[in-house]
Amino acid sequence: MARGVLAILGSGETAPGMTKVHRGLLARLDPVRAVNLDTAYGFQENVPQMSQKLEEYFEVSLRTTLTTLHFTNFEESDELERTLFKQRVRQANYVFAGPGSPSYALAQWAPLDFASDLLSVLDTDGTLCIASAAALTLGAYTAPIYEIYKVGVTPYWLPGLDILANFGLTCVVIPHFDNSEGENYDTRRCYLGERRLGILERELPDNVATLGVDEHTAVIFDFASNTVNVQGRAQGYWRTGDDVKVLENGSTTSIDDLRNSASTHRSTSNDESTINAVIDETTEPDKLARRVLDGGPDAMDALAQLVQIAQSGARGYIDPSPLINGVLAARRGARESGQYQVADQLRDALIAAGIKVSDDLEGTSWSID
Asked: What residue ranges define each of the domains in the chain, with the CATH number in brackets?
């Protein structure tokens, strides 16, 4: 049974009016392990600047360190990068995703089975704060906003991550619900306009509702208390056919009042425990190394843990010597058994963590740059 919180922000994720919302969400966590997912805006040329802006907002306005988890292209990533990304998401307890393109985000996340990682955060009493473009991916279907609004294609749906269906809430999510940028033309309903959203809604199965979230507004699902609360500037909406339930600003409603399907949520399995837990820097590297060399189904998870341990040690949180030596032992074993790609990945992980690795006739030595 999930005990976490899902906050869906209609827009304005770094605006002053949303600061109180973030503070309230962060206050329930101790310690805070906050991460930003850059995937939704990963196609843009200004990815570093976007991430820096978000990190600075959390640092200055919220006094919280926000670490960006870089994952912008599934096809260009390797298995280790994918596993590390999934591990680090599960280890966080405040996961933020926001601006960008919903269709681009889905193209990168869907092959990862990323819904299971987000659900794992909720399973472990964490918080998902999903805003703007990323919010569209949470439902059973996702509207490709750029393609419809900017390119002019005939409105259509993409399969979504369907996170909310795990709690009996089968719906699509539409942020920017009250947008008025068009002035003399209709840009409500996340720039689709009421007419085009109506076309899309008529294509939905009868049991799929529309969750609309106004700009600078947060609809917050607390699964431990089974409530949905609305904060910020305006309102939320639960539309099923011609019936519209308005979620008033400041109101708290039972989630049962919105449920329209049986929950399909599955609890965290024992097989997921390795990547579900926060990395313990005292984990014995030699045991992880043996799991890597055994080549079993959790070998990549063990390799990713070794990478994280090496990086943590290099930053000085703990004495890095035994950890780095353990990674080098794993690398040596990989080379001896002909697993040269694994050996190269371990070496590259140490180098990325600021550790200089030198091979000579007498063996391997290291130093911290």
From this structure: 5-257 (3.40.50.880), 279-368 (no CATH)
